[in-house]
């Protein structure tokens, strides 16, 4: 729903805290606002401020642009009257925000009352009143048969236990599950979502221990809460969604698709019916890049063709609308636009990634087993796929990485090397990295590398021998040739060298250039060393788990991902993007935005 002047909103608990901030933010958009609150003094103050903002968009109206209604939300009669007055005044209801809430009045362990004025009252305000208000909002929206949005204020303590406030935590947990269970109302045009922030600096939050709040990263800025609420209002795909907001991880939806798939029951078999969200349109044909001539020149070897999009899909297939493709044609992210009737645990509108050839296309039809659900179809996910997964799985499985080791990463400023150095540091290791050039060296230092060896300024062999005389415990090697020799000679007793590539041996038209490694058996035997090869395709069963892990590290700010700032938009720019990558000018993952509608959107993963 587009936030624009002339819409109307009702906000319970609108006289203070989050309710106040949202009332003012809506008024600043020209939205007519009804502020419902128990405090008459505060309510009238906020209404006056909101009226000043909303009046900038309206003049000469015969009705108030902002109203305050004193109401005890636990009184069903008063609450119903508030909704009726809003409806009579504004002729409908576009947005309802249920923000009224209180904390535990008496600590649960000390409560010796019958609960009517303590824990029962907390449950009545935080949960029962939200249920009642949601019911009234739905009925009002159904009366005028217009789309509407309802946002219920939950809390992060409704997602995980809050030991100092079990009643508050229980009531907010009830709000979360109640709201998520109302997702089917989207079929009637009514979207109901729940907002779950951690601590915001309000009168309610100030009652909690400040040390607990500090451990969680401090108070959330109110602007972030408003941003989250507005996202739930604007995003037509969100219904029954829970938006979790923390200082540590920012905004993210809970649970993730992977977690959600653990409890969703398989859908009953039925005839294939192609249905898509309102913002997804399935055309009769689409464009894709195809190879028509074998050549090392991408531009001359390919062309764009239009292909008929045939439906229904095969029963075990998925149609993915591609939004971003990586410049290697083997990874892409997008939105699931249609599914076959045998597909389970995937749904239309779900963001997803693929790691199969064919990403340079507007749509891709692939078996459902190749789909990787993700939080959002952002460019950063592309970097996490081939590059990130190789580093994450290779270090865990092939290198058997532990903490307290010396880890050497070659070509560390490259796409997978950047992940490897960060993951090794996060695991508690001393990280040594090789690269060529000042800019790449600076990048690696910014990523936390302990010792950067710039081979253009230093001799790698000399540095390793002098500064790491006992050798390196783990080597993450992607160069091959002479670099492999250097790394093997620098490997410590019991050391493990993992080969994930050999870029120096990829030779133009002749393909692989084999190399002899004489004496390798004697070297490995003498020091009980291991050389292990790693090929990502053979670890497909671990992709989803490691991808979720990388997403969580990135969302929490523990992992940095560099996306090249140069934009390439549309299939016609693919050749330009490939040539840009080969020019050596790129800094970070080079991506192509296949759908121009997404070109200006910033990543929010």
Overall description:
The structure is a single chain. The chain is of the alpha/beta class and 605 residues long. It folds into three domains: 247 residues, 3-Layer(aba) Sandwich (Rossmann fold), CATH 3.40.50.720; 129 residues, Quinone Oxidoreductase, Chain A, domain 1 (Alpha-Beta Complex), CATH 3.90.180; 173 residues, NAD(P)-binding Rossmann-like Domain (Rossmann fold). 32% of the residues lie in helices and 21% in strands.
Q: Keywords for this structure?
A:
605 residues; alpha/beta; Rossmann fold; Quinone Oxidoreductase, Chain A, domain 1; 3 domains; 8-stranded mixed β-sheet; 6-stranded antiparallel β-sheet; 17 helices; 24 strands
Strand content: 15-25%
Residue runs with pLDDT of under 50 for 5 or more positions? 267-278
Question: N-to-C terminal Cα separation, in Å?
Answer: 22 Å
What structural class do the secondary elements suggest?
A: alpha/beta
CATH structural architecture of the largest domain: 3-Layer(aba) Sandwich
The main sheet comes to:
8 strands, mixed
Described by the principal axes of the CA atoms, the overall outline is globular
| Amount of helix | 25-40%
Rg, Cα atoms, Å:
29 Å
């Amino acid at each position: 729903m587009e936030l624009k002047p002339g819409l109307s909103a009702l906000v319970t608990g609108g006289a203070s805290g989050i309710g106040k901030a949202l009332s003012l933010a809506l008024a600043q958009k020209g939205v007519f606002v009804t502020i419902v609150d128990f405090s008459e003094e505060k309510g009238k103050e906020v209404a006056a401020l909101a009226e000043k903002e909303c009046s900038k968009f309206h003049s000469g109206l015969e009705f108030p642009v902002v109203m305050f209604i004193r109401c005890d939300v636990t009184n069903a009669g008063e609450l119903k009257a508030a909704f009726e007055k809003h409806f009579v005044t504004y002729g409908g209801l576009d947005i309802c925000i249920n923000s009224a809430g209180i904390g535990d009045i008496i600590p649960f362990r000390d409560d010796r009352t019958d609960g009517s004025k303590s824990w029962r009252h907390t449950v009545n305000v935080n949960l029962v009143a939200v249920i009642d208000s949601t019911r009234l909002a739905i009925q009002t929206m159904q009366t005028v048969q217009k789309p509407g949005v309802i946002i219920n204020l939950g809390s992060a303590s409704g997602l995980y236990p809050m030991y100092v406030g079990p009643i508050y935590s229980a009531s907010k947990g009830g709000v979360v599950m109640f709201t998520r269970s109302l997702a089917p109302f989207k079929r009637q045009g009514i979207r109901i979502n729940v907002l779950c922030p951690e601590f915001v600096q309000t009168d309610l939050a100030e009652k909690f221990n400040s040390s607990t709040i500090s451990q969680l990263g401090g108070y959330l800025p109110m602007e972030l809460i408003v941003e989250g609420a507005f996202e739930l209002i604007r995003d037509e795909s969100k219904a029954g969604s829970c938006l979790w907001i923390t200082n540590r991880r920012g905004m993210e939806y809970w649970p993730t698709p992977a977690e959600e798939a653990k409890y969703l029951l398989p859908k009953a078999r039925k005839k294939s019916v192609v249905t898509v969200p309102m913002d997804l349109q399935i055309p009769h044909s689409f464009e894709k890049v195809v190879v028509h001539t074998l050549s090392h020149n991408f531009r001359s070897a390919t062309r764009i063709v239009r292909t008929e999009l045939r439906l229904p899909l095969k029963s075990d297939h998925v149609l993915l609308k591609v939004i971003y493709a990586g410049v290697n044609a083997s990874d892409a992210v997008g939105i699931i636009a249609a599914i076959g009737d045998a597909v389970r645990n995937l749904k239309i509108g779900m963001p997803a990634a693929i790691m199969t050839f064919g990403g340079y296309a507007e749509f891709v039809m692939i078996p459902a087993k190749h789909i990787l659900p993700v939080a959002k179809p952002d460019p950063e996910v592309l970097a996490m796929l081939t590059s990130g997964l190789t580093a994450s799985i290779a270090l865990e499985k092939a290198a058997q990485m532990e903490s307290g080791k010396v880890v050497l990463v070659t070509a560390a400023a490259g796409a997978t090397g950047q992940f490897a150095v960060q993951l090794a540091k996060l695991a508690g290791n001393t990280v040594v990295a090789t690269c060529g050039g000042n800019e790449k060296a600076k990048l690696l230092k910014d990523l936390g590398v302990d010792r950067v060896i710039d081979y253009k300024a230093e001799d790698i062999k000399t540095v390793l021998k002098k500064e790491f005389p006992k050798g390196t415990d783990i080597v993450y090697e992607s160069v091959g040739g002479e670099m492999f020799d250097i790394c093997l000679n620098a490997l410590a007793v019991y050391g493990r060298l993992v080969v994930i590539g050999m870029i120096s041996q990829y030779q133009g038209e002749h393909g692989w250039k084999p190399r002899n490694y004489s004496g390798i058996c004697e070297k490995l035997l003498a020091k009980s060393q291991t050389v292990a090869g790693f090929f990502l395709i053979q670890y497909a069963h671990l992709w989803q788990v490691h991808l979720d892990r990388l997403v969580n590290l990135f969302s929490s700010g523990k992992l940095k991902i560099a996306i090249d700032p140069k934009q390439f938009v549309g299939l016609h720019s693919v050749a330009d993007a490939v040539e840009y990558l080969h020019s050596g000018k790129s800094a970070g993952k080079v991506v192509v935005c296949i759908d121009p509608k997404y070109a200006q959107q910033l990543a929010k993963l």
